[in-house]
Amino acid sequence: MPFPTAYTCRKTFAGFPCTHRQWRHGGHCRFVHGYSRSFTLWFAAHHLDDCGFVVDFSSLQPLRERLTAQFDHTFLASDDDPLLPHWRELHDLGGLDLRVMENVGMEASARLVWGWANALLHDREGGRACCWRVEAQENEVNAGLYTALPEWFNAPEEDGETEAP
Known about the structure:
Elements: E1 7-20, E2 33-45, H1 61-71, E3 74-78, H2 84-92, E4 98-101, H3 106-125, E5 129-137, E6 143-147
Parallel strand pairs: 1-3, 3-4
Antiparallel strand pairs: 1-2, 2-5, 5-6
Helix pairs in contact: 1-3
């Protein structure tokens, strides 16, 4: 894959314990189980901001808040889970904090977070910086990734795009 730009950085957000189930899975993943998820985001910019950053990590607090609201001590259910009415009832009874998603898997979670990060950056940076990769990790050995440049990411203002080493 061509390297997206000359400047990149990454930021990890960790410590989001939640549960989910892959109801279509024929094995044990069909049962409710949990992990403490973490998300590593890679950012790119064709030029640095006035402080010399690709992305000012302190400005990502709204993203951290969104991750916390979605993944911290929550139960994730796919929107087509046949038990969804029961999960909703348990939520209403105070037995779990339900979040309904199109897909609760790590790859789909990575894409969801990629979209959130790019919405934040597009609104704030106007095309100067983007998130081009997200790794959603469920434990120390399993992770799903989503990698893409958003359509709005501006072309570099000068020649000098490089390939990854």
